[in-house]
Amino acid sequence: MRRGLLILVIAACSNAAPTPTPTPTPTPSRPPGVTDALVAVADRMVATLDKLATGLEAAKLDCQAGTAAIGALESERKAVYDEAQKFGDTDRDPAVKAWFAATYVGKINAAYDRTKGIATACAQDAAFMAALNGFALFPQQ
């Protein structure tokens, strides 16, 4: 699952153009490999990303305020990261991957799109970029 969530986020975050608001599509029925615990950690990841986006929007284009907003979420970020590490590679099942993509990619893209303004404005601010690049929710393999 760690790899699967990472793949979903990398795919979502690598989209350079703003993502239009998706038309809601029915989520496929949840496959057996998607446990309640797995859904709970994925929901926490999305909620934390949403809080990050809200904090960065509030900072406007102020890099110092953006850096502070990222830092304010560090303990929550670390807790979600630690929880995500408990899951193995549950994404090997194509049905699991499809379910997570249908359920979470739109939400991840929406949060990410809200951070683009300040991320662009502060791209040359070393402290801001270090904080933003350190905001890992998904364990690397």
Question: What would you say this structure looks like, in words?
Answer:
The chain has helices at 2-13, 36-58, 63-72, 74-84, 94-113, 116-121, 126-133. It has one domain (2-14, 30-133). It contains seven helices and no strands. The longest helix is centred in the middle third of the chain and has 23 residues, at 36-58.
Can you tell me the number of structural domains? Answer: 1
What structural class do the secondary elements suggest? mainly alpha
Largest sheet: none
Helicity range? 55-70%
- First and last CA, distance: 11 Å
The string of secondary-structure elements, in order, is HHHHHHH
Q: Assess the beta-strand content as a share of residues.
A: under 5%
Describe the global form: elongated
- Regarding quaternary structure, what we see is single chain
Q: Flag low-confidence runs.
A: 1-16
- What is the radius of gyration computed over CA atoms, rounded to a whole number of angstroms? 15 Å
pLDDT averaged over residues: 82
Summed up, the helix count is 7
Report the count of strand segments.
0
Task: Describe the secondary-structure layout.
Blueprint: H1 2-13, H2 36-58, H3 63-72, H4 74-84, H5 94-113, H6 116-121, H7 126-133
